[in-house]
Amino acid sequence: MFSFMFTLGLMGLTFYRTHLLSALLCLEGMMLSIFMAFSLWVLQMSSDNFSTPPLLLLTLSACEASIGLALLIAIARTHGSDRINTLNLLQC
Predict the structure, then answer these.
(1) Domain extents for the chain?
(2) Where along the sequence do coiled-coil regions lie (predicted)?
(3) What top-level class would CATH report for the domain 1-86?
């Protein structure tokens, strides 16, 4: 089930690339599926020593989301839109 969720997010990221916000949402869906699979694996191991890696992954995912939203706001302010096709990343 988690591999299906990850594949669905990857397909959304690959085929539906019109807006930067949709790409960021697909990345977040992929990170959430990895987090849930990793948490389930830790529960199956039934050890208390492995409880911090899923929390570390969730923390890094939250940091990635905040950086992505900050970039989205900066791009929307400078270019007026979040459409990926209108962005030329080679120009300053």
Answers:
(1) 1-86
(2) none
(3) mainly alpha
Extract the tokens encoding 86: 């209108």
- For 83, the enclosing helix (H) or strand (E) is none
Question: How many other C-beta atoms lie within 10 A of the C-beta of residue 26?
Answer: 20
What type of residue is 78?
T
Give one word for 14, left, alpha or beta, with left for phi > 0 and alpha for psi -120 to 50: alpha
Give residue-wise pLDDT tens across range 44-83: 877 666 667 777 888 888 888 888 888 888 888 887 777 7
| pLDDT value for 47 | 64
pTM here is 0.73
Contact 9, 37 (CB under 8 A): no
* CA dist 40 → 14, 26, 73 (Å): 27, 21, 35
